[in-house]
Write a structure and sequence with these properties.
The protein is an all-alpha fold and 296 residues long. Helix content is 80%, strand content 0%.
Length: 296
């Protein structure tokens, strides 16, 4: 009972934690290298889990294609831009913009999956947007020394939200076609995305000395491994459990986007960031909008 909903909340907790870990790692090795390495590490860990647990790898060809597409849209496009936003505006503001994802997912669900947008859903989208804009446009908030107001950072985070939503919808379609274990689905998405992205950057000559950089920055290695387990392995698998076990993809996306509230105490403790009343109020308003989406 409530397996999907609990999995979605678990995903939100894991993604809140991993945003801090990956932010620190990206400072040392760069966002592109981090994106590739975390996918490769996660693929290895998921493969071990599948072997040990005896999880079947079989699926229909169309399901495979949809899951690969889901990985490209969500993990390469979406997460690639999200990591860029981390470096520009920090994890909390990035995640606040990412809370647009439930609205985007609901819209995509309507046009792609045939779900209905009610007045309550439209109201929830509007309230969520309002809360995000209150925080993003807040002039009284004191930024940390590392992260300043950067419009491109906000734009990158928005593209991350669009990519995440598109990836969820494609995965949902794959699940609707027949049973696929969530670990298998996660492994398919992550491995295909990692191999494709690795091939692209190697062809562009942007992936040099992959081992040497960890020798220079051993802390980055442990951060990448830790983040890979928290995020791609556990977080992505739980997100697939969520969309596969909730009646409406908007509900899963909504619960996974409760990160703004979870991020507030984290950044105060980790980054000593000072939050204005407007920032806190905006986060609360965004979550109120998310609740409206949840009860549609």
């Amino acid at each position: 009972m409530y397996i999907g909903e609990l999995a979605a909340l678990g995903t939100a907790i894991l993604w809140s934690l991993v945003s801090i870990v990956f932010t620190e790692a990206s400072k040392l090795i760069g966002s592109m290298r981090l994106n590739i390495n975390r996918l490769l590490f996660a693929s290895f860990f998921l493969f071990i889990i599948i072997l040990v647990a005896g999880v079947p790898l079989t699926m229909q060809p169309m399901q495979f294609a949809l899951l690969v597409g889901s990985g490209v849209v969500g993990l390469i496009f979406g997460d690639g831009f999200l990591f860029r936003s981390f470096r520009h505006i920090g994890p909390r503001k990035s995640m606040l913009v990412m809370s647009l994802s439930p609205g985007v997912t609901t819209l995509l669900g309507t046009f792609v999956l045939g779900e209905e947008i009610t007045l309550l859903v439209a109201l929830g989208i509007s309230i969520t947007l309002l809360g995000i804009f209150i925080v993003v446009l807040d002039k009284k908030e004191t930024p940390s020394q590392e992260y300043k107001t950067d419009r491109m950072g906000y734009f990158y985070a928005f593209l991350g939200a669009v990519g995440q939503s598109g990836g969820l919808v494609l995965a949902k379609i794959a699940f609707q076609m027949g049973y696929v274990p969530e670990f298998t689905a996660a492994f398919t998405r992550i491995l295909s995305s990692g191999v494709l992205l690795l091939g692209i950057v190697i062809a562009m000559g942007n992936y040099k000395d992959p081992i040497a950089i960890y020798v220079r920055h051993p802390k980055a290695l442990w951060l990448t491994i830790l983040g890979s387990i928290i995020g791609p392995v556990l977080g992505i698998t739980l997100s697939l459990v969520a969309i596969n076990n909730t009646l409406n993809i908007g509900i899963a996306a909504t619960l996974m986007s409760t990160m703004p509230i979870l991020m507030l105490p984290i950044v105060v403790i980790v980054y000593k960031e000072k939050l204005s009343l407007n920032a806190v109020f905006g986060a609360i308003v965004a979550v109120v909008g998310i609740v409206f989406l949840f009860i549609k």
